[in-house]
Design a protein that fits this description.
alpha+beta, Arc Repressor Mutant, subunit A, nine-stranded mixed sheet, three-stranded antiparallel sheet, 16 helices, 16 strands, about 40% helix, about 20% strand, binds adenosine-5'-diphosphate, binds magnesium ion
């Protein structure tokens, strides 16, 4: 029998606000344990949570970008469980009345465009961290992360393959980065993903029993864990056994998942509305203000790069991957009016140099204006593509005006006919044997002569002119 995989993702996005969701303690990452804590973080008696307005604004931003309905009247709930890193004994989350519902995310999975439904987005606080020290034979608590704001984005079970799950997650990461809500760094835990996986016979409408895989902290792990889990479930179903609904852990060493605990039911958490926080009522004017400030979204930019700038789908995907690439591209091409060349310079020269030097795009020492000027100088035949690479090296190292670099280093292209003709003549005079061979029909030697002339000109002769004049001189 053939099975179809059914996958739904629960993604936690850690928000990059200044302070925590219910107190003024800093929500920045720090290596020093318990540096960012206050009485609210500890859940001390007599403390009360005060909602951080920025968190609501971020939730609205993401909700609107994902085409969600905004719940004008939403509520916080307490989710109860015991764990040492949760001092209050409950986590403040949203349950029956989350801030956003019924949205969708459109994204590209290879060549196809897919849409996955968003069930809900809710706001909640993060828990702290237990640190188990073998050396000191004890467990320690670090509450820096306790109270850091999260948005949980729950998808509909619309995803049909491991690869598609990874593509969905990449698109979500791209979106939260565009919206400047989070750095979306999976390795550092700013984006955390749980994957729900079940199988059903092809053609069947009813869903099968699912398992939930926790702790997937890279795109590769998401893909590998789901692939493994699908294969595991297929084997169980084929042997006639039922799937047990449970929570599983992915072990990246072995590439397998193993049972962690039987699945808890929501009733186990004893959810109820948090009496310390009044229901949140969101004004229409606030929603409109947030909507008005939304940036152009990745999918729209992708399409515009193809339709308005003539980029290929592949190039459009590379440039639209990050908002900072888009900004750089748009500003540079505005100067040189050559979008294709701008894209090539960004994706090969800039990305190549960054990789070679182990640097980030945000660390570039030159501006898009300067890249645009460099490309324009090539297009105007002031310098050759080869010389442009020399100019680029200096630009990359220390920035500056391409024109000034060219002047100072005497890199201007020689486009003076008679100067080039002199060099051509010299090259022919010094290589009489090759000249004879060329005239006897060895046309391949033209490249050799071009090379000789370029050498004489120290790379600055206009290659097209060199070519033309060489042919004239060789034929005469
Ligand atoms: P819980 O909070 O208990 O994990 P939810 O109903 O909120 O349960 O569902 C969590 C996720 O599980 C959602 O992303 C949803 O799409 C997904 N899901 C639900 N049923 C299935 C299923 N049969 N197969 C795969 N995923 C599923
Ligand atoms: Mg779950």
């Amino acid at each position: 029998m053939d099975y179809e995989s059914v996958i739904g993702l629960e993604v936690h996005v850690q928000l990059s606000t200044e302070s925590k969701i219910f107190s003024g303690a800093s929500s920045h990452v720090t290596d020093k344990p318990n540096e960012h804590v206050d009485p609210v973080t500890f859940g001390l008696p007599g403390t009360l949570p005060v909602l951080n307005e920025k968190v609501v604004e971020f939730a609205l931003r993401l909700g609107l970008a994902l085409n969600c309905d905004i719940r004008r009247f939403n509520r916080f709930a307490r989710k109860h469980y015991f764990y040492p890193d949760l001092p209050k004994g409950y986590q403040i989350s949203q349950y029956e009345e989350p801030i956003c519902g019924h949205g969708r995310l459109q994204f590209r999975d290879g060549e196809v465009t897919r849409t996955v439904g968003i069930t809900r987005i809710h706001m909640e606080e993060d828990a702290g961290k237990s640190v188990h020290s073998a050396e000191r034979q004890c467990s320690l608590l670090d509450l820096n992360r306790a109270g850091v704001p999260l948005l949980e984005v729950v998808s509909e079970p619309d995803i049909r393959s491991a690869r598609e799950a990874a593509a969905y997650l990449r698109a979500l990461r791209q979106l939260v980065r565009y919206l400047e809500l989070s750095d979306g760094n999976m390795e550092e835990g700013s984006l955390r993903c749980d994957a729900n996986v079940s199988l059903r016979p092809k053609g069947e409408m009813k869903f099968g029993t699912r398992t939930e895989i926790k702790n997937l902290n890279s795109f590769r792990f998401v893909e590998r864990a789901i692939e493994y889990e699908v294969a595991r479930q297929v084997a169980i179903l084929k042997s006639g056994e039922p799937i047990v609904q449970e929570t599983r852990l992915f072990d990246s060493e072995s590439g397998t998942t193993r049972s962690m605990r039987s699945k808890e039911e929501s009733a186990d958490y004893r959810y109820f509305p948090d009496p310390d926080l009044p229901p949140l009522q969101i004004e229409e004017s606030w929603i409109n203000a947030v909507r008005a400030k939304l940036p152009t979204l990745p999918q729209e930019i992708f399409q515009s790069l193809i339709d308005d700038y003539g980029l290929s789908e592949y190039d459009a995907a590379v440039i639209s991957a990050e908002h900072e690439y888009v900004r750089f591209f748009l500003e540079a091409q505005e100067v040189c009016k050559n979008p294709k060349a701008t894209c090539n310079w960004i994706t090969s020269e800039i990305f190549g140099a960054l990789k070679q030097h182990g640097e980030q795009f945000s660390e570039l020492r030159f501006s898009p204006l300067q890249l645009g000027q460099l490309i324009a100088l090539i297009d105007q035949d002031v310098i050759s593509g080869k010389i442009a690479k020399t100019v680029f090296e200096e630009l990359y190292a220390s920035g500056g005006s391409p024109n000034e670099i060219i002047e100072r280093r005497g890199l201007k292209q020689i486009t003076d006919d008679s100067a080039i003709r002199e060099m051509v003549k010299e090259a022919l005079r010094s290589n009489p044997e090759q000249v004879a061979q060329f005239r006897e029909g060895n046309a391949k030697l033209l490249g050799f002569f071009v090379g000789q002339v370029m050498k004489l000109s120290k790379g600055s002769a206009n290659p097209k002119l060199v070519n033309d004049i060489l042919l004239e001189e060789l034929k005469s």
